[in-house]
Design a protein that fits this description.
By secondary structure, the chain is mainly alpha-helical. It has four helices and no strands. The longest helix has 16 residues. The chain is elongated and about 75 Å long.
Length: 97
């Protein structure tokens, strides 16, 4: 894992450190592992370099499902099919009032 002090400047040509379990670690420890001083933040050149290495800080847009796909998925749910079967059986047996 790469570590550096915030006063040392940017890590030129160094890959971004991986902090895979950042959600389970204290914030100070994650900041230290990423080479960031939480009180100061990143220098502009560090921001540009990290953005170039890891891409934009954005989520990929969600894929939209068509209405027909949603209807088909809802209609083929096991419970819906069970109700449909029970309804048809009631009609066939003459139990509809």
């Amino acid at each position: 894992m790469l570590r550096r002090c915030a006063m040392m400047g940017a890590m030129a040509d160094s890959p971004m450190p991986e902090v895979g379990d950042a959600h389970a670690r204290p914030a100070e420890e994650v900041a230290r592992a990423l080479g960031v001083d939480r009180g100061v933040g990143l220098a502009t050149d560090d921001v540009s370099r990290r953005a170039a290495l890891s891409g934009p800080n954005a989520l990929a847009p969600a894929e939209r499902e068509s209405v027909l796909t949603m209807i088909r998925e809802a209609a083929t749910e096991p419970f819906v099919l069970l109700l449909l079967g029970a309804g048809l059986l009631a009609v066939v047996l003459g139990e509809v009032r």
